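User: For a benchmark we're assembling, each entry needs the component sequences followed by a predicted structure for the full assembly. Here are entry 17's components. Please fill in the structure.
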Amino acid sequence: MTSIESYLDASCVRLAVNPAEAEDVREELRAHLHELVEEHVAEGMDRQAAAERALARFGDARALHDCLNRVHRGDVWWALRLKGLALGLLIGALFGVLAPIGGHLEFAARAFPLPADVDPSRAHIAINAMLAGGVIGLLSAGGRGLLAGWCVGSLLWLTEYVVHWIIGVASGAADAGPSVLSSVLLAPLLGGMFGAAVGAGTAAILSAAARVRPQIG
Amino acid sequence: MASIGGDILKGNTLTLILTLLEKQAMYGFQIAKEIDRRTDGVLRFREGLLYPALHQLEKEGLVESEWRVSSQGPRRKYYLLTRRGRKEAARLRERWSVFSGAVNQIVGKPRD
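Assistant: Structure for entry 17:
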């Protein structure tokens, strides 16, 4: 049965599953092959010929390995999404902190006081960019993720703008609120969308192969 | 009769597996044998490729699996249809019925 074990080595090597699952897959394939061998032996073949016939019926080990890996790579789908999310957060935050967009949100700083050495406008842009970047990073593993991420990011900004405007009116300084352009368009577009797309795009490319349904034949 | 594999079989993998599992839980070798028996050996495929297909169905929640101890040999991994799997099997069977009926309207009739 050495040839069967060699076949299993080739078809199950480095599967994208944990060791226990890999052993399960191997055991399942081995059981099938052994039943085939027994069947051929019962038909009158010697064990070696029966094993060779069983392996021939099973198909190429490399093709089986590739097929199994395509299926099980999907197990890391969410891990990839989380990586996209983390990268999106990081890049979005960098953009948010570094890009002097808007110069707004002073009212939010009044409502939610920041440490004295933190520029409130940049800090809030950074937070918003992180939020938008994270949303996009999480969603853009799918085809419509970028659009959905942009919409959610923009909605966050719009909500924030309205809240600030209301706070501004209440405090008698409405004209100091953020501009619509920077709130709804520029900041999410630059801070969130671009940064997160990088991370999410990576996840989407790496996981695309896992969506193919294997076929017999 | 000559055996059939390739693209025709590939396109109907899910229909075959899910339909077989509608009646009873089965393990991989049993599924392969049943396809062979019920088609008189006409449908030929590389049996190893059953497993990626079964694993994918399991990941999609259409089947679930459980190991059962066998008195005649090694333990076996049985696959059972889930409720979603039953719905999908019915849908695929309906689709196959419509498709095969339509093809028969052309291929199965003598030429005018």
